[in-house]
Fold this protein.
Amino acid sequence: MSRQRQSGSPRAGAASRGAGDRIQGFRAEWARELPDLDTEPMDLIGRAYRAASRTRRAIEGSFARFGLDSGEFDVVGTLLRAGPPYQLTPTELYTGLMVSSGGLTHRLIRLARAGLIARSRSPIDGRSLLVTLTGKGRKLAEKAFRADMALEQQLLDGLAPASRRRIAAALRELGAVIDANVERLGASATPTAARRRAAGSGRRRPSAR
């Protein structure tokens, strides 16, 4: 039997899973290599991560049709959801979006240049900035979101309504548990912040005595 036809080889096994359950295949391979390790979390987190990864390119492509990336849409979408006067402070934006203030600043600059938002000083506190969605920004955000929802409906085509409700309920439970455990484990820092913290942990600190 030729090597290409040996179904037991890892390469052949990986190729044969094209339309199948890749996570189940990955778990089987890990079970062979590390039989003492419980990979059950991959059934949940691995599948959620893969679903997000598989849809990301299509969703980014949809936003790109409107001259936006997903991060920029998050900003204009959050302002639109806020309702009239479609206005938030930068702190409210980056807290809600869970991005760094620096990352948000770059998005705001690009959006302002495109005429989708306007930044102004707060009339109540001159030290604070306000970010306001412009008329142009409102129209574009609505069009982009409608297109995104149409695309996501297509991505879920074939999934029965009852299955959608069941999966949504399970994902809500999963999200609540992960949120609580991320906070409990102190794992909420961004990868960059975590790397900086790890790098700094080896430095000698002044004695408290």
User: Anything to note?
Assistant: The mean pLDDT is 83. The longest strand covers residues 117-121. The chain has one domain: 26-184.
